[in-house]
Design brief:
Blueprint (H helix, E strand, L loop, with lengths): L2 E6 L3 H10 L4 E6 L10 H7 L13 E2 L1 H10 L1 H9 L3 E3 L7 H4 L13 E3 L2 H12 L5 E4 L2 E9 L2 E9 L2 E6 L2 E4 L7 H4 L6 E6 L2 E10 L14 E3 L4 E6 L4 E9 L3 H6 L3 H10 L1 H7 L4 E10 L3 E5 L2 E2 L2 E2 L4 E3 L5 E2 L7 H18 L3 H37 L8 H20 L1 H11 L12 H12 L17 H8 L4
Parallel strand pairs: 1-2, 1-10, 2-6, 10-20
Antiparallel strand pairs: 3-5, 4-5, 7-8, 8-9, 11-17, 12-15, 12-16, 13-14, 14-15, 17-21, 18-19
Helix pairs in contact: 1-6, 1-11, 2-6, 3-4, 3-11, 4-6, 9-10, 11-12, 13-14, 13-15
The structure holds flavin-adenine dinucleotide (FAD).
Length: 483
């Protein structure tokens, strides 16, 4: 074997790294604390697969074009199996608002802007089975990593507990894909790896549902299945095998609402107040398939293992949530893990020098992903302010805030809903195929957006979505909570 690689963590980033690095002359061992996937159907796995290492496993997930493109082009057999297992592609054309869908014509590049609709358990189960078939890839399961083996600043392996026994697993390279709770900085004795962090400002609540026999999903032409009410964000996530989930994201400062939300009756009551979710959970259409899952402590975070242009550790490469966490609302985390995994595989093919490998990984990650991180942190700060203002009756936003809101709601919104070229340009950034603000630098696109802004509201009223849901006081009243 030319190289032995240990991947710590069999989540999305770890699996994508195994898939990208697999080669006949390499040994790639993926080490995970959780049991192996059960030999069950995807529906049974959703109910039964024990995955204590991934708290978010049963929260709503949607998968963006960038991830889909990587799977489809690099792992076509995996793509086919996913679709055969019930995961669904939602193409750019399918996802368009009704005004644009009716006159949609395919253009090259549209095929990169598909969503994949699937429960996270389904995606992970099928990916895991696929990765296990690749040359040189093996899994060590129920194997809790307890520390790292080092020689000076070089990582030489992992200390792993399997059953009651502590083992030493040696490697040329160690990849940290242990996710948001990584302990590697502590094990390596490296404080100050966090170079940036910002709050997401929300808590996540998710419930899964199953369509009743003979029932269909509501048409996409009705009230939108996703929206932002300021005091609450909501989203319907279509999934595989007649399942879907709804996520309600509640600002941290909405204490009464968030405390009540774990109660399934309250969760469903909120969904019934919002037209875009109410029609999905109609008792004639669907039944609950899970309890309400809640999750907090959602922050965005960026780490670096280099200082003053020098590595602080060698033979060690962090990817995915272990080094770059994003607010789940944007649906980017799995794409981030996949992008980093593929960057790392390219870099491994280019150079064997550990210092250079880490440098290239961090530099290219920053070039590719920092624009997304930066914009997200700004948008999250705005959303946190908006949630605070919602609690102040009669609050009037400042001029700058009003202009930003108007640009989003009266310019970009109507322009993209009415003009396929604007929609394409905006969605390329959304799907992480290019810098998320690249469209703002294209004269032709900005001219169309500004024209939409200048158009009087009466002339573009068909380009606004319907009111997404009740005002805060109305919702709290309906739930019997004090405003
Ligand atoms: C509520 C929520 C909703 C989200 N929704 C979306 C979405 O819609 N779309 C999207 O793309 N992303 C979404 N994300 C983000 C996405 O889930 C993460 O970015 C992604 O799972 C990160 O993958 P990872 O492999 O880095 O970490 P994880 O998937 O968390 O995997 C880490 C792995 O490491 C293992 N592990 C940890 N510690 C040890 C140890 N000591 N020993 C052995 N094994 C260990 C765990 O068992 C686990 O298998 C969401 C996140 C949250 C929190």
């Amino acid at each position: 074997m030319s190289e032995t690689i240990l991947i710590a963590g069999a989540g999305i980033a770890g699996l994508m790294a195994a898939m990208a690095l697999a080669r006949d002359d390499r040994s790639v061992v993926v080490v995970d604390r959780d049991p192996p996937p059960p030999a069950l159907s995807v529906d049974q796995a959703f109910d039964e697969w024990e995955r204590k290492g991934v708290t978010q496993l049963r929260h709503s997930h949607v998968f963006l074009g960038r991830l889909i493109k990587l799977i489809r082009t690099q792992h076509p057999r995996l793509w086919t199996t996913l679709i055969e297992s019930g995961a669904r592609e939602c193409s750019f054309g399918d996802a368009l608002p009704p005004q644009l869908r009716a006159r949609y014509r395919y253009a090259p590049g549209d095929e990169d802007m598909s969503f994949l609709f699937s429960r996270r358990t389904t995606l992970e189960l099928i990916m895991r089975r696929y990765a296990a078939t690749l040359p040189g890839v093996a899994f060590a399961t129920e194997a809790g990593i307890r520390g790292v083996l080092t020689d000076g600043d070089r990582v030489t392996g992992l200390k792993v507990q399997i059953g009651g026994e502590m083992r030493e697993m040696m490697a040329d390279s160690v990849i940290d894909a242990t996710g948001r709770t990584t302990q590697f900085p502590d094990w390596l004795g490296l404080n100050e790896t966090v170079v940036d962090t910002s709050p997401a400002g929300i808590l996540y609540f998710t419930r899964h549902y199953r369509l009743l026999d003979g029932a269909e999903e509501p048409s996409r032409d009705g009230p939108p299945g996703a929206g932002d009410l300021g005091y609450l964000k909501f989203g319907v996530f279509a999934a595989d095998n007649r399942h879907f989930s709804i996520t309600l994201a509640v600002p941290e400062i909405e204490t009464d609402l968030r405390t009540a939300m774990l109660n399934p009756d309250v969760f469903d009551a909120v969904c019934r107040e919002v037209p875009g979710t109410a029609r999905w959970i109609d008792a004639a259409r669907a039944e609950p398939a899970s309890k309400v899952f809640g999750m907090g402590n959602l922050i965005s975070l960026w780490r670096s293992y280099r200082k003053d242009d020098a590595p602080r550790v060698r033979n060690f490469y962090p990817i995915g949530d272990a080094t770059l966490r994003t607010n789940p609302l944007y649906g980017r985390g799995c794409s981030v893990g996949a992008i980093m995994a593929h960057l790392l595989a390219d870099i491994f093919a280019e150079t064997a020098d550990p210092a250079e490998r880490l440098k290239r990984l961090e530099t290219r990650t920053r070039e590719e992903l920092h624009p997304f991180y930066d914009l997200m942190a700004k948008q999250d700060a705005q959303a946190i302010r908006r949630a605070r203002n919602e609690q102040m009756p009669g609050y009037k936003p400042r001029f700058r805030a009003r202009v930003i809101k108007s640009f989003a709601e009266d310019a970009v919104g109507p322009a993209s809903r009415g003009d396929i070229e604007v929609m394409r340009a905006v969605m390329r950034g959304f799907h992480m195929l290019e810098n998320p603000t690249a469209w703002t630098k294209r004269f032709g696109i900005m001219a169309r957006v500004m024209k939409a802004w200048a158009t009087p509201k009466a002339l573009k009223k068909n380009l606004y979505p319907p009111k997404p849901g009740p005002e805060r006081a109305e919702m709290l009243r309906a739930l019997g909570l004090a405003a």
